[in-house]
Amino acid sequence: MSTTKKAVKIPSELPITAKTQSPLCFLHSEILRAYIGEQGAYVYSVLHSRRKQTIGELSKKTGLSIGSLKKLLTVLIQLGCAVYIKNERTGAVSYAHNEEGCWKLTFADDIVRHIREKFGDNHAGVMQNVLLGGHVTVGSYVKEIELKSEIEMVEQSFLDLIEDGWLIHVKGMDFTTLSENFANCVRLANREFMENSSQYTRSDDMGMGGGGGNPRFKSAGLSQLKKTMIIKDIAKEKFLKLYYDNSGKEQLYRVGISNNKRSEGSSMTTLFSDDEDADEQVDDGSKKLKRINGSIPLSVSFERYLKYSRDTHLVSISRHRIGNVSAMVYEVVLDRIEKSTRDMRNVEHIVDRLVADASVGAGSAGSSTSGYDPSTAQDLKKRLELADQQKGMNFGAADILKALSLTKRYELTKDDLLGTIMDNEEDDDVQNSRKRKLEESEANGYKKSKLSKLAAQIKTFDEDEDEEEDADGKNNQDNGFDINGSSSETAELLKLILHHLKLLTTDTKLSFLIETTPGQFYVPFTVLQQQLSTYHKKQLIKCILGNASLRVYNCIESKRLAEEKTIAKSVLMKEGDVRRVIATLTRFGLIEIQEIPRTTDRSAMRSIFAFKLNRTLRSSRMLANCLLFNAGEVLSGVEERKDENKILLAKLSRTDVKGHESELLLPSELEQLNMISSANRADMARLQRLRHMGTHPMFSKSVRHFSTSAARAVSIKTVPGSAESVSTLRVSIKNAGSKSAPAGLAHLLATSTFLDTPEKSALRLKREAELVGGEYSAEVTRDALVLKATFLKESLPFFVNSLASTVAQSSFKPHQLAEIAAPFASFVHQTKTACPKFKALEELHAVTYRSGLGLPLYFDGSKTFEVSDIATFAKSAFQSENVEIVGENVESADLEKFVSESAFATLPTGNTVVAQKQQTFSGAESRIRQAGKTSAVIGFAVEDADAFELVAAGLLSNLPESITASVESKVLSYEGSNLFYFAVTSTNAAEVAQFITTAAKDLKSVDFSKYSKLASALAEKEVASKQVSVPNDYNLVVVGDIDAVPLKSEL
């Protein structure tokens, strides 16, 4: 009997989730849809939604077969759009999205266009093929080429692109995430430290030698913190060494032979063979040439394109702010140092954060209690600023004139330069005294003599270098610069170039150049990248929101905090107009509202509202995300247009129609074809503008903003809600309960939540929640800290961000602990302990477990804690592995998207803490005399919770119907233990004594297996019938009139 496998349906269009996840995912999915089809784009969007998934999870999510997924994942990894993470212990492989490959495809046409303009069509063809292939080897590239002349052109094209930095060798770490690579380095560093510390002897410590140990690995006498710091430093060194490893680049080249000495029997393709032993023999008289190793895979360097894009942007801005000629001089400056500049996205910043988050233990990288020190970022910034001034990055007027003389491909000509700077010395001489004329004449003579010396030095340049550079620009027109010209003319050109360089240092908003010593300059790229971010944001505000919005934005920036009336007076606008502009800026997240109370009771009726800039990452990304989404809409529109006209386009692609369209197509079809062509051209022009406007802010910082790490381990679940419009978010933080901290500290942490964060005050956090119809609450359990928010369904993004900032960014302040958290915690404790049943259960936990689960649930004031104690406990508990988010009546995809974009994604990762089995005790008795009701509790620790649900049901069923006391019997389930108890509470102590005695006897005599149905109803789950073995001993706690209740030995 044969079975037919159900065919997998190929998606005809991307699902709506690819569009709603994020603007970046939408754009990249549309890009991949155009390159590799709907299936590949769909898989990428699913990877983007969850970030880290096994192939089984992907198959379940997408509905595609394992075989199809393997092919698609291979293509995505080849293109650099996906990476894999392998678990060393289990061998399981997970996959995550990688934005680097998608960015290359997004800018592929711009990259190819620039290569064509700079090098030629052959180089552009090579670049295009490498982009479409992801990464290729030269050997496989030339395998299908037969003509030797074409092979030589391809070889030269690859050489030129490698030498100019556009092609780089592929490393193994490119196929996995940075965080996983760093985790491996931490494991290696930990192992290396442990192995070498054992070799470091006491004789080494005393300087006597003989042990052969390295003092760096000394472990005796060192604290655990110091050892951890040493291991982290070793891990950082290993990672940076791995990241900047150029061993593959050294293997890129081989020694070949010139054409006139090549043997007739040798094949050109042997120079690109994948066999490492395929080197040709070279005669003694032959000329050795640099050739490419055909077995090394090559890929396009996106960093190189970012440098070119940055320099093009800087030249455009300088033309707008300084002038056309100065911008052309600046173009020469940037082109001269472009290849040598550091990467725009600095990996050291990412490494410093990984080091701060890493913990050493259990062989993995987890979280640290130290956190990321802001001074580390400041130190890195200073190092980068110094790197901008390193040797080879400084230049003067003579260097620029040399570059203009040696190549003709620059736009600047001598005619453009001459006459651009007016010399007013002659007019000054007429107006000043004779003595002044003489002084100026001497000074001018000194300047001319100095410039003449520079001109004389320029003539000493090597002629071979001149010929080589001229060969590159042989197809360009002569720009008029000649190093062999007269000294006076060269001195005049040097003087003009120097003046234009000085002009570029005068801008107060953007530091195009900085003059270090007279006549010597450098480009401060680190400072410029920060300034460009602000400049570009303001230009987007001006272009999208209008001049009025930019005026208001600049006013708020200058005043830092301003009221509406103050803004209206400063920008000379009506208050109504200012109010509308502020509403728009607030909607885009560019400014924030701050409530300022005027009275001591902080009455909302008498408060005023001021406005300040929103300097968070969200404000920087909002406008960019809008533009990226529009770019994705443009690409989606192009694809939809193709689908609508697929019959006409299919007819047009037929071989018999090509070249005869006007004869074979109907007039209506020709008109429709022209409409499609015009619409596509308009969309491509719009895409070009949106792409550069929207993506520049993504790379305007000096750190990486694309995905470099695997997904955080925050657990996210959704459940259906009982109300249609009301939603609930519940954030449970494991290892933050009362059992994990000194007595009362967990409760103080709970009462300290929803107070101040770096972005919002406690008052603002509460008022904003009330305005959108929501509320917060926090409670502590023995296992976890639980934060809860109830709100209207459409307010989900706001409350996700609020809960995330509370968990990841809470600011614990001493006055809030003394005035709010501690008094409220004491009040809760007094309220709870007034109930004798609660007090009895607390005492039952104490006598059963003593420590851990036996610690008090609430803060009783017996211990004194400082703010630092709360902050330290919070930092150790608030790790991504400990956080579980449960959403009720919310969309799962929306919740995952908002969580990934919130501060939850910044939580440090840590080693998963396995719940330890709690040590238990029995046979104890505790009696607490107290006025009021009397409560008696029998309890003991159990292993099989379901079995003792039968016991609880049996004890309750044997009670008479006329009972007036409050009786409860349950099994409390915790991590590491279960606690069964039977409690009786009443104003009549004799009644308590009667029923507690009856329960003690029933525990020893009743068969509880017959109470399965009742147990299932009470526990609200299926409880199977089974025989129950009840312990012989138990614990007894009595609170109230202890004289009326029998002793444990009397029961």
From TrEMBL:
Keyword annotations of the record: DNA-directed RNA polymerase, Nucleus, Transcription
Domain Peptidase M16 N-terminal: 725-858
Record GO cellular component, one term: RNA polymerase III complex
Domain RNA polymerase III subunit RPC82-related helix-turn-helix: 27-86
Domain named DNA-directed RNA polymerase III subunit RPC3 winged-helix: residues: 540-612
Subcellular location: Nucleus
Biased composition (Acidic residues): 273-283, 462-471
Gene Ontology BP, a term: DNA-templated transcription
Start and end residues of each stretch annotated as Disordered: 265-285, 459-484
Pfam families (alphabetical): HTH_9, Peptidase_M16, RNA_pol_Rpc82, WHD_POLR3C
GO MF: metal ion binding; single-stranded DNA binding
Highest taxon above the source species: Eukaryota
RNA polymerase III Rpc82 C -terminal domain: residues covered: 273-531
Family per record: Belongs to the RNA polymerase beta chain family.
Record's subunit section: Component of the RNA polymerase III (Pol III) complex consisting of 17 subunits.
Summary of the function given for this chain in its UniProt record: DNA-dependent RNA polymerase catalyzes the transcription of DNA into RNA using the four ribonucleoside triphosphates as substrates. Specific core component of RNA polymerase III which synthesizes small RNAs, such as 5S rRNA and tRNAs.
Name used for this protein in its record: DNA-directed RNA polymerase III subunit RPC3
